[in-house]
């Protein structure tokens, strides 16, 4: 089955220690998104890639970076995690950007910062 | 600015009872509307979506939603709830500045036997 895969499912890191979260997709979609979801809150978009074009949300902290080496993979790098970065990180894909496009979500990576 | 409001944070219904989850949106143009469901510790699964045409939309797992432009609403309904429906439900509007989804804060559904 075509799908969106996120690894690891759970990640524990130390305050200030860089961490990388991984997302891969077999849907061959052009767009990949990263959302942050804090406890009992709505998912919030951090940034997305449309093919190789990177698009950052205005209020995404500089501490968050992303890489997309090829169509299938996208990484979220947190350079110096703080306690406030503990959250569920959701990767999603869509064929094209834009309002009517359905986004397909992975299972998420839950990040804990000690 | 676009926004989505889900007025109910938590709803409890009995198994077999009907369900309606409310969603109101604020959007300048024709909205693209979605309902997603999230089980504990899981990602989001699309239940249904509305773009245009018939305002009553059928989705998976027996869910439906009705778009009412005059009320800026897109409420989710199910005639008979099953225990497996216990989850968190998010309403979203497509069309953020980068084509992203703008989510409501979610409604947590509990189902009692």
Describe the structure.
- The complex is a heterodimer of chains A (114) and B (113).
- Helices cover 0% and strands 51% of the residues of chain A.
- Chain A is mostly beta strands and 114 residues long.
- Chain A has no helices and eleven strands.
- In chain A, a hairpin with a 6-residue loop joins β4 (31-37) and β5.
- The model of chain A has no long low-confidence stretch (mean pLDDT 93).
- By secondary structure, chain B is mainly beta.
- Helices cover 0% and strands 52% of the residues of chain B.
- Chain B has strands at 3-5, 10-14, 19-21, 24-26, 32-38, 44-50, 56-58, 64-68, 73-78, 87-94, 101-103, 107-112.
- In chain B, strands 2, 5, 6, 10, 11 and 12 form a six-stranded mixed beta sheet that branches.
- In chain B, a hairpin with a 5-residue loop joins β7 (56-58) and β8.
- At the A-B interface, β5, β9 and β10 of A face β5, β6 and β10 of B.
Structural class of chain B: mainly beta
Alpha carbon gyration radius of chain A: 13 Å
- Shape designation of chain B: globular
Low-pLDDT parts of chain B are none
Shape of chain A: globular
Over the alpha carbons, how many angstroms does the gyration radius of chain B reach?
Answer: 13 Å
Number of H- or I-type helical stretches of chain B:
0
Give, in order, the helices and strands of chain A.
Answer: EEEEEEEEEEE
Largest sheet of chain A: 7 strands, mixed
Helix content of chain B: under 10%
Mean pLDDT of chain A: 93
Overall helicity of chain A: under 10%
Total E-strand runs of chain A: 11
DSSP strand tally of chain B: 12
This entry's quaternary arrangement is: heterodimer
What would you call the structural class of chain A?
mainly beta
Major sheet of chain B, described briefly?
Answer: 6 strands, mixed
Strand content of chain B: over 45%
pLDDT < 50 stretches of chain A: none
How far apart lie the N and C ends of chain A?
36 Å
Order of helices and strands of chain B: EEEEEEEEEEEE
